[in-house]
Each structure stands twice: as structure tokens, then as C-alpha cells.
Amino acid sequence: MEGSRTSYATSTTSTDVVELYDVWVKYGDVYALEGVTLSVPERDFLTVMGPNGAGKSTLLKTILGVAPLVKGKVLVFGKDPYRERKEVVKRIGYVPQRERVNESVPLRAVDVVMMGLMGDKLLPFKRNGAEEKALKVLEEVGLLEVAYRPYRELSGGQKQRVLIARALVSDPDLLLLDEPFSALDAHSTKVVADLLKKYNDKGKTIILVTHDITPVIRYTKRVALLNRRLIAVGEPLKIFTKENLVKTYGVEVPVVVQGEFCIPLVGDQHGR
Ligand SMILES: Nc1ncnc2c1ncn2[C@@H]1O[C@H](COP(=O)(O)OP(=O)(O)OP(=O)(O)O)[C@@H](O)[C@H]1O
Ligand SMILES: [Mg+2]
């Protein structure tokens, strides 16, 4: 567990990319996050796990400064995303859990990826080698051959990888990925997991939400177990204790042993 902090005093020289202090988020009468205190240092690869409704997506939206914060303090790159959202989000690549790309507009895959370069400008965004950059990341996610196909005609897994490419194209310092493997087959999952490792090795900070940690078990530096409250955070080798898993999921969770790792079976691990 992180040591709890009693004050909101922060240091501008810290290398923490994300700092949450006693964060409470509430939708209507329901708290989605309760007193979460968590620091994510530069170059961390943090995998966030927890049951449905645990507040995992809400945690990412809090970092983006869009979830309804009722108490606490959020700093991303030392700035409050609720006050300086534009400044903060331009350094973040975000893959949402559910995406509404307007499919009535005949966008090609490469156009959707280029939207990741738009920032706050609507048009023109096809400047400064935008298309080349988009093609490069499409190649990295294994989709070069569908670059000029209409986005709406792609399969679910192809669309998901296009959205991952859109998050990567601006070369962000922080990547927030909300269940990016959920529609991917085993091969594509490996391609994306290896790509995340590559970006992490290049110095990017990664916060990944997933029910299945298997694809990234060797790449994850820390795991956070969340169920509205932060139950535990620590190295993947140490975090999946019976006690932590029962506290997080409310039931005993089956685990498989893979090499030195103990992996909880809480998601769709079939066929992997
Ligand atoms: N826009 C919203 N309006 C109202 N309630 C919301 C909203 N978004 C989330 N919630 C509620 O907040 C809680 C946490 O939701 P969240 O989506 O963060 O969970 P999650 O851990 O991502 O779950 P899952 O594994 O199903 O994706 C849930 O009770 C959910 O119903
Ligand atoms: Mg979610």
C-alpha cells in the first residue's frame, strides 16, 4: 500500500506523472472512488485491476479531469487537469473503454488515427507529416493493410487497434488504456502488449486497465487493485495474495501459476 499522505503539499520537482490525494468521485448518490491516494512515477507501467463497477474507468477519467471530483486533489505532470485540462491532455494518449466514432462520416482508418494529432484544432490536421505518422503507428499495431479502408467496415478488433494507434500517434508521455485487449485475439493482444512494453522502454508512463493481466504480466511494473478504494498497490510478484484478492473481488479468486507469477483468473483468459 502507498503510505497515506496527510496533507496535499506537493513538490514541483517530483518525477511523479500522476498524483492523486484522497480522491473522492461521485455520480449522483454513488461514490465511484473513495479516498484514493496514488502516485504514478515517470516510466511506471501500472496495471489497474478490480471488479466491474470498481471505478477503474473513473480513475482514468479523473486523471483526464472529467470525472465528477467531489473531494481531493489531482495532479498530472504537476498540473491540475480540472483547471488546466488542455495543457494536461495534450501529453496524454487515451484509449477509452467504449468509443463513439461518428460512423456516418466516411472516415478511413488512417483519418481516425490522424485525429489523434488534432489537439484542440479542428482543421487542418493533415499537416507536418500527419499521414506518415499515422501510417507508422498503424504498422506498429499490425494494420497497415487496412489503412485506407473505411473505419466503419473494420472488425471490432481492428477498430480497437485503430483507436490504440490514435492514442499513440502524438507520441504522448502518458498512456491511459481502458481494457485495450477486450476485443483482440491472441495474436493482436501480443502485438499490442509488446508495443506497450516498447513505449514503456522508451520512457513513456503507462496506466492500463484490464481484467486479464496475462498479456502484460512480464511488462507490468506495478499492479493497483481497486474496488472504489485502493486496496493495494505493488509489484506483480507480490500483489496477488489471497487476502488482497478477496478484499478486491469479494470472493476467492482462482489463480494460475505461470513461471514465477501467480495470475488471478478474473477476466476472459480463455484460449490464451
Ligand atoms: N457517467 C456515469 N453516470 C453515472 N454513474 C456512473 C457513470 N460512470 C460510472 N458510473 C458509476 O460509477 C461506478 C464505477 O464505474 P466505472 O465505469 O468506473 O467502473 P469500472 O471499474 O470501469 O467497471 P467495468 O469493469 O465494468 O468497466 C459504477 O457504479 C458506475 O455505475
Ligand atoms: Mg470500465
Which properties best describe this structure?
about 270 residues, 8 helices, binds magnesium ion, 6-stranded mixed sheet, 11 strands, alpha/beta, 3-stranded antiparallel sheet, Rossmann fold, binds adenosine-5'-triphosphate
Topology summary:
Layout (H helix, E strand, L loop, with lengths): L15 E12 L2 E12 L3 E5 L6 H8 L5 E8 L8 H5 L2 E4 L13 H6 L15 H11 L15 H13 L5 E5 L7 H16 L3 E5 L12 E6 L1 E6 L1 H4 L2 H8 L5 E4 L2 E4 L8
Helix pairs in contact: 4-5
What does this structure look like?
The chain is α/β, with parallel strands linked by helices. It has a domain at 14-91 and 212-272: Rossmann fold (3-Layer(aba) Sandwich). The protein has eight helices and eleven strands. It has helices spanning 56-63, 85-89, 109-114, 130-140, 156-168, 186-201, 236-239, 242-249; strands spanning 16-27, 30-41, 45-49, 69-76, 92-95, 174-178, 205-209, 222-227, 229-234, 255-258, 261-264. Strands 5-6-7-3-8-9 form a six-stranded mixed β-sheet, with helices on both faces. It has a three-stranded antiparallel β-sheet with strand order 2-1-4, with helices on one face. The longest helix has 16 residues, at 186-201. The chain is globular and about 50 Å long. The model is unreliable at 1-7 (pLDDT under 50). The site of magnesium ion has 4 residues, from helix 1.
